[in-house]
Structures are given as C-alpha cells and as structure tokens.
Design goal:
By secondary structure, this protein is of the alpha/beta class. The protein has one domain. Helices cover 32% and strands 14% of the residues. It has 14 helices and 13 strands. A hairpin with a 2-residue loop joins strand 1 and strand 2. It is globular and about 70 Å long.
C-alpha cells in the first residue's frame, strides 16, 4: 500500500462527523478528546502541536517499561465478517451475494473461519503463533452510535460512576508516573487522557517542543520564565512541570533511529513507525494508542478483487507486519490488540455496503499471544435484514486476559465490577 485510498465519506452523518473531528491539529487530534482530558485528567497543555494531559500529581522520573500494550482502534466499526470470514456458516454467502469473500481465496482457513486475502502480510505471524483472532467480540449490549459506542468501549465501566478511561486506569497501576507512560499517536486520546494519570498525544516526532526554546532546561530563558510564572504547587504548576518533563524525555525518541521508510506510506504506517521509535527509545511508554480509520463502509465496500475493504485490510496488515519486523528484539515485550466500536450487519445493503451492527472481531499480535487460532464461541448467523452478529465474548474479557498475563495490574481497578470469562488467547 503506497498511499491512503480510504474514502472520506461513509453515508453515515455521525461517521462523517467522526472523521472531520479527528483531523483538527497536526494529523488527527480530536477537540472532544482534548476537552475530555482537560476536564477529567486535570489540565491539558499544548507543547508544540502535541498535548500533555497533566495529572494532579507530579510526574516521576522516566523508567524503562517492562511491557508495552499497543491498542489499535479500527474507527468507524470494522466488519469482522469480512476480516475473518465464517465460510463454514452457510448464511454468510446467502446474506452477501455481491461482497462475500470466496472460500478458495481465504488464508489459513479452518473448518469455520479464514482470513481475508488482503491480510496476507500477517500470514507468517499467524503461522508462527504470534497472531490470533477472537470472533463475535464486542460490547455486552448493542450500541449503533459511533460516539456513544466509542465512549462505552473506552470507559469500559458500564453502570459505574467512574469517569475515566480503562487505559488511564491501567496506567495508574504502574509504580511510576512518567508523562510518557501513556502515548496517543495521532489519535483522539479519550481513554488515555480521561483520568488521573499523565499522558501525551502526539502526531509527529518533531511535534513535542516548547515554542521558542532552544533547549529544554532552566538555562533557556523561555523555560526559566515559564518556571518562574508557574512555580506554585497547584494543578497548573505541576502541569507545566509535567509538560516540560515530557518534552525533555521525548528527546530520546527524536534521537532514536527513524525507520519510517521501512513502513507503507500510509497514515497507519507512519503512526506505527513512531510507536516503534518510542518503544526502541525506552522512554517508559507502557500503553500506546493508535487510530486506523475509516471502516464505516455503508456503501461500495468492494469485492475480493479490490475496493474499500480490501484496501483498508491491506493497509492494516502491511503496517502491523512492518511494525513487528521493525521492533526486532523489542517485540518480546510488545502486545498489540485491536478494538472497534461495533461491527456491521450480516446482510449487505442495496448500496453494496453494510450498515451498523453489533459483534466484530479482535486481533491480537505479539508477546504472550497464543496464536495461529481463532477464538470465541460462534453464535451462528441469521439472514433477516437487520440481523447482527451477536456478541458472545465481551471485549473486556479479551483485554483482561492480556492485562492479566502481561502486567501486574489489578483487573478490579481497570475494569470495575466486571468478572471476565476465560478466552484462552493469551499464554499463561
């Protein structure tokens, strides 16, 4: 994939709003995300074109992260039935006479499932046991509103008075609070910024800077002036110190080798190149979020020969494959998991597309993944016009398994009031 071929519109007014809201500053910073972070995380300070969400507590010195979780959000509601095709369910082909993927084109097929052929760059990871898929996963109840579903997925605390993102709660279980422990790369930072822990939202490696300052130290007149103006031990004062610490520590990322040329020339490729650079710089980043959109394919989804779905799946696969190849030995500490706000309906519509549905698929790749297999309980498809793929695996059960095997975090803190079910997708 040499360029982003994704259409900008989707035929869904809310989806168009979602797309336009995510392209505000330097490649994808959401006003809604920054505002939410400012209100819930304490305060949001702009440094260059990056945003540091400052915590109510002072940031400690950066420490090496023993693990890194990369959460890749497939914005717009990815169709799990196209990405992981249930060829063994006869309803799939009758419900999608024009957009179904032929069985003989599927990759790594078993008796029920096979991967979309555009995912070929990931086939070797599957065969090496480093990639897996969980089907019929998602929110415990249907929610066809992009914004409402995204917020529900990223809060992950239905019925709770806790107003924070599950990723920010995960950061709070670490023993250190570096402002670089949580990084949102070119994304809307809802789940990271909403909460007590500091985080950084950045779109490019050169975006983290203090305007007009030649160096990030009190020897620089600009930094010294800011330090004098905000030396109080209050939220703004601690916030400024957090931001300056983030800028200083981020210098190690700029100094790390730039490997962008080894990635596809797409927005996801550039984002994952920056994620790899941050991990290899060892600046303490333990949770990283990346967005990949637009999956809101109401019209012209395309066929196996080409089109929107094939291009989008190909972008995803090429970028993730390049990411793990680029990490090298650092891959032993990195686990990547995908989420999407919901899936698409079973039956194709009159516009060669798919409308908002319920269940979708989650991919897991990298460290600790019990790969080369499809997971989840298959509920079977029905072919009525408004039929959804039911959710049989709560997405929090998948995330809980990742957190429980890769971190020392308290699941009761990260997912309050939730009792996960065993999925088996992570090695214990």
């Amino acid at each position: 994939m040499s360029a982003d071929p994704t259409p900008t519109g989707c035929g869904c007014p809310e989806g168009n709003l979602l797309t336009s809201a995510a392209t505000v500053a330097d490649g994808g910073l959401s006003r809604r995300g920054v505002l939410r972070g400012a209100l819930l995380g304490g305060t949001a300070l702009t440094v260059g074109s990056a945003v540091v969400t400052a915590a109510p507590i002072a940031a400690a010195a950066t420490q090496s992260a023993p693990w890194t979780l990369v959460v890749l959000s497939m914005r717009g509601a990815a169709d799990g039935l196209s990405l992981v095709v249930p060829h063994g369910d006869p309803v799939y082909y009758s419900a999608r006479p024009r957009v179904a993927i032929p069985k003989d084109r599927l990759l790594v097929a078993d008796a029920m499932f096979g991967l979309h052929p555009a995912l070929a760059p990931l086939q070797s990871m599957w065969q090496q046991g480093k990639l897996a898929a969980v089907h019929a996963a998602g929110l415990p109840a249907p929610n066809r509103s992009h914004f409402a579903a995204i917020e529900a997925v990223e809060d992950a605390a239905p019925g709770s008075s806790t107003r924070s993102g599950w990723l920010n709660r995960l950061l709070g279980t670490d023993a250190y609070t570096s402002p670089l422990q949580g990084v949102a790369v070119g994304t809307s930072p809802f789940a990271l910024a909403a909460g007590a822990q500091p985080s950084l939202t950045v779109a490019s490696v050169n975006a983290v800077r203090v305007a007009g300052a030649s160096a990030v130290s009190t020897s620089d007149p600009r930094i010294a002036s800011l330090a004098r103006a905000w030396d109080a031990d209050d939220l703004m004062g601690r916030g400024l110190r957090t931001a300056v610490t983030a800028v200083a520590d981020y210098g190690a990322v700029r100094a790390a080798k730039d490997t962008t040329s080894s990635y596809p020339a797409t927005s996801l490729g550039r984002a994952l190149a920056l994620v790899s650079r941050s991990i290899r710089a060892d600046v303490g980043s333990s949770v990283v979020t990346v967005d990949h959109g637009n999956w809101d394919m109401h019209t012209d989804l395309g066929t196996v020969a080409g089109g929107w779905m094939t291009n989008q799946a190909g972008q995803f696969a090429a970028a993730v494959s390049a990411f793990f190849a680029d990490l090298g030995s650092w891959a032993s500490r990195v686990t990547l998991v995908t989420v999407s706000e919901f899936g698409r309906r079973t039956v194709e519509n009159a516009d060669h597309g798919l409308d908002h549905g319920w269940g979708s698929v989650m991919f897991l790749a990298g460290a600790g993944v019990n790969g080369g297999r499809y997971y989840g309980r298959w509920p079977g498809l029905t072919a009525t016009g408004d039929a959804d793929l039911p959710v049989t695996t709560d997405y929090r059960s998948v995330l809980a398994e990742v957190i429980g095997t890769r971190t020392s975090a308290s699941l009761a803190t990260v997912f309050p009031g939730f009792t996960p079910q065993a999925v088996g997708v992570m090695r214990r």
